[in-house]
């Protein structure tokens, strides 16, 4: 391929889709979206601050929670400029290079969140099924290695499929389905051979999201088997309560992904507004809900936050 054609593809501009039919109300729509982003940033920063400053929370479970909060914070940062940019009238289109970079971060952070949720399920499995060896299995050194593995898995597997987007010929209308860039959106506009992107992308989804979901399910089957073997009803309830926050976080993450996938696969006849709404739910719902879930359901986090606000009030 000639350098001229590559340059032409690199200079391509892609139109972002806001909320079709609601253009006159963008300024009003921007208010709840701005509020959601503020809550995402403040909520996840608060969780990170509480875990960092409270020595009693320097445990494996809360280290993984800190990873989850950091991932959610980065997800919000990766899309805030285009989503609010459209609603406030600052931008209508983006360059191919920016689009590729944004899709890398969105997909990479999704895989990272899935990996963190898997690590958290492993933490709950050890805590309930093998409590006497919990501290010896999940040492600080092991947690650091798990964190590095999560980061490597999420960032190093994606570049082959993302980099190839730079060299595709985009001859179809350059209109994205969402207020941000996704890999599946870009290959939909390409006229080049996309078999590698399709096959490798499917491999990434199966080896990350699907495999993680299956392993999380298996871990909870084993946890349930162990809990049901406990004689005391109170002890069974107490053990399961330690998993409630994580189960909610798993549902909050996977349900929007499944919904967006269904809309992309089978909802071509649906209004573009449905696609846009599902895309924004996929991006914003987990980062918004996870701090709320852990602030309400996790006693140690809740008490520390209450103490934090009481100190500020005095």
From TrEMBL:
The keyword Cell membrane applies. Gene3D superfamilies: Rhodopsin 7-helix transmembrane proteins (1.20.1070.10). The keyword Membrane applies. One of its GO terms (cellular component) is plasma membrane. One of its GO terms (biological process) is cellular response to lipid. Residues 43-294 form the G-protein coupled receptors family 1 profile domain. The chain crosses the membrane at residues 26-51, 63-91, 103-122, 143-163, 198-231, 243-267, 273-294. It comes from the Eukaryota. Pfam families: 7tm_4. GO terms for molecular function: G protein-coupled receptor activity; olfactory receptor activity. It is a multi-pass membrane protein. It is found in: Cell membrane; Membrane. Its main location: membrane. InterPro entries: GPCR_Rhodpsn, GPCR_Rhodpsn_7TM, Olfact_rcpt, OR51/52/56-like. Keywords: Cell membrane, G-protein coupled receptor, Membrane, Olfaction, Receptor, Sensory transduction, Transducer, Transmembrane, Transmembrane helix. Belongs to the G-protein coupled receptor 1 family. PANTHER family: OLFACTORY RECEPTOR, OLFACTORY RECEPTOR 56B1-RELATED. This is Olfactory receptor. It comes from Chrysochloris asiatica.
């Amino acid at each position: 391929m000639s350098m001229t054609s590559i340059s032409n593809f690199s200079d391509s501009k892609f139109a972002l889709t806001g909320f079709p039919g609601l253009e006159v109300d963008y300024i009003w729509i921007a208010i709840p979206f701005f509020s959601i982003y503020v809550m995402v940033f403040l909520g996840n920063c608060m969780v990170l601050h509480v875990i960092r400053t409270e020595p009693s929370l320097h445990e494996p479970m809360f280290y993984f929670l800190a990873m989850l909060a950091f991932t959610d914070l980065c997800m919000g940062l990766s899309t805030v400029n285009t989503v609010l940019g459209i609603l406030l009238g600052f931008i209508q289109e983006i360059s191919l290079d920016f689009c590729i970079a944004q899709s890398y971060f969105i997909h990479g952070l999704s895989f990272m969140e899935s990996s963190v949720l898997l690590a958290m399920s492993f933490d709950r499995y050890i805590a309930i099924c093998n409590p006497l060896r919990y501290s010896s299995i999940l040492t600080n050194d092991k947690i650091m290695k798990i964190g590095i593995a999560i980061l490597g898995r999420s960032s190093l597997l994606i570049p082959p499929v993302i980099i190839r987007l730079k060299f595709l010929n985009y001859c179809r209308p350059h209109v994205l389905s969402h207020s941000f860039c996704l890999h599946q959106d870009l290959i939909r506009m390409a006229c080049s051979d996309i078999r590698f992107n399709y096959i490798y992308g499917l491999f990434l989804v199966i080896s990350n999201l699907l495999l993680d979901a299956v392993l999380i399910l298996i871990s909870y089957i084993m946890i349930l088997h162990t809990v049901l073997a406990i004689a005391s009803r109170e002890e069974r309830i107490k053990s399961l309560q330690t998993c409630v926050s994580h189960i909610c976080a798993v549902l909050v993450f996977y349900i929007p992904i499944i919904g967006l996938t269904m809309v992309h696969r089978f909802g071509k006849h649906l209004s573009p507004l449905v696609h846009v709404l599902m895309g924004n739910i996929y991006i914003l719902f987990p980062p918004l809900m996870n701090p709320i879930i852990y602030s309400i359901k996790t006693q140690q986090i809740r008490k520390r936050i209450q103490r934090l606000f009481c100190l500020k009030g005095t």
